[in-house]
Amino acid sequence: MGVFMSVLTIASSKGGPGKTTVCQALAASLAGELRIVALDADPTQALSRWATNAYEGPPVEVLAEPDETRLAHLIASKADTADLVLVDTAGFGNRAATVAMTSADAVLVPSLSGEADVTEAEKTIRLVEGLARAARREIPVRVLLNRVRRTTLARHAAAELKAAGLPRLAATLSDLVAYGEMTYSGRLSASGQSAAEVAALIAELRELGWIPVFALQQHVIP
Amino acid sequence: MKTLKPRSSSNRPSPETALSIATAAAPNLPPTQLGSEDRPSTLNVRLRSSTVAAITSRARERGLTIKQVVCHALADAGISVAEADLEDRTPRRRG
Predict the structure, then answer these.
(1) Which chain B residues are closer than 8 Å to A130 by Cβ?
(2) How large is the average pLDDT for residues B77-82?
(3) Residue of A nearest to B30 (CA)
(4) Could you tell me the residue ranges of all domains in chain A?
(5) Which of A23, A162, B55, B91 could be A88's S-S partner, Cβ–Cβ 3.0 to 4.6 Å?
(6) pLDDT bucket at A221, cuts 50 / 70 / 90
(7) What is the dihedral of CA A178, A180, A183, A188, to 10 degrees?
């Protein structure tokens, strides 16, 4: 298991690969056991609206902040108190996303299977690598294939990622109605394929040390 | 097996350093949200001639434009007036 990390930025320079959905699924699944802060750096504020209007689970602190300077300070302050800080970013190259990736302990890059998605995932990963070099620190990054269908296209996308030397998670999220429903219902199904996929994703992120196993409060000696 | 969280678990950069690195690495990226530009627009007000004459007179006395007299009065009344509207921006002829 890797070193525990607490700031996970979800980024991609392309819109629509499921950044907010992944953020919602992680927040909803982990809120019962960890203190989660989700920072919404996307001006569409889809994550914030979901948290306000739809989400029904254990408390998750969601703050909208698209300004890069305020976001940098918010990440630093919340990282000190939360078990896990999730940062959802806008789907185009922008300053706030770049700051969120620089400040991250790890970056997750959701990608669909299309050529443009894989190309933008590669651009995002190269940017993270450049930021890590500039910061002289390791910023681990992985692609998460999203809305996967068991088709030749999905296998080809995985092969393209591998050929480009882009690290990706073994876990994938399928093209399931349950994820779309979650954006309206505020709940992720507790059973079925979607629940199993998110559990597998969380297990892999924990194995990487990107998500803590225990809540911060459990380490406090009374 | 317990996994104890180290007191300092990350070499995460300070906010200032993160901003500096991000700006240097990708200097041409736009802000996430463009600030709304405070563009000029027009306000037409229909006033009695005597009122216009009084404002004009005050403007001449003080060496201000009519717009400045009105905007300074509004600012004095506690209305938030843009700095640009308190200045004399009348186009000057050259030569």
Answers:
(1) 25
(2) 87
(3) A94
(4) 7-209
(5) A23
(6) very low
(7) 10
